[in-house]
Specification:
Layout lengths: L7 E2 L4 H9 L7 H7 L2 H4 L5 H10 L4 E2 L26 H13 L6 H30 L1
Antiparallel strand pairs: 1-2
Length: 139
């Protein structure tokens, strides 16, 4: 591995890498190894000698290409974390579900709600722009 290349060890357990490195660098542990293999998060890397030890011990596993960092999401996996909710009577929910099932534009209630919110925001934006235009005409 050349200078400036990050250390990523594919297909090798962390404890195996730690065992190899501890022989020369006793302060290495799994927590440090975890940080070193994520330089985009912790801004640290092994010195060249340590990289060479890893490469010699695991020639197939040591690579310079680390996986891309992933975007953290909320525990439920949703990209959007804020909600807008309303409680409706069961009869109204049943009618809404029936009409959404009949309407081919929406897959489910959530897609209908998103479309309704988008339409409302567009309508209000147009109304506010119209109000501003009318005020400008008065000036």
């Amino acid at each position: 591995m050349g200078k400036g290349e990050t250390t990523y060890i594919a297909g090798v357990q962390n404890k195996e890498v730690v065992t190899v490195l501890k022989q020369k660098y006793p302060g290495v542990d799994k927590a440090l190894l975890s940080k070193v293999t994520r330089p985009w998060k912790y801004a640290i890397d092994f010195i060249e000698d340590a990289k060479a030890l890893i490469h010699d011990a695991f020639p197939e596993g040591a690579s310079q290409e680390a996986p891309r960092p992933h975007v953290k999401r909320k525990g439920d996996g949703h990209r959007y974390t804020r909600r807008a909710e309303a409680r409706l009577p069961p009869a109204k929910i049943s009618r809404l579900q029936y009409h959404i099932d009949q309407d081919q534009r929406f897959n489910d209630i959530a897609s209908f709600v998103r479309a309704a919110v988008d339409a409302y925001i567009e309508e209000r934006d147009r109304w506010e722009a119209n109000q501003a235009d009318q005020l400008n005409m008065l000036d």
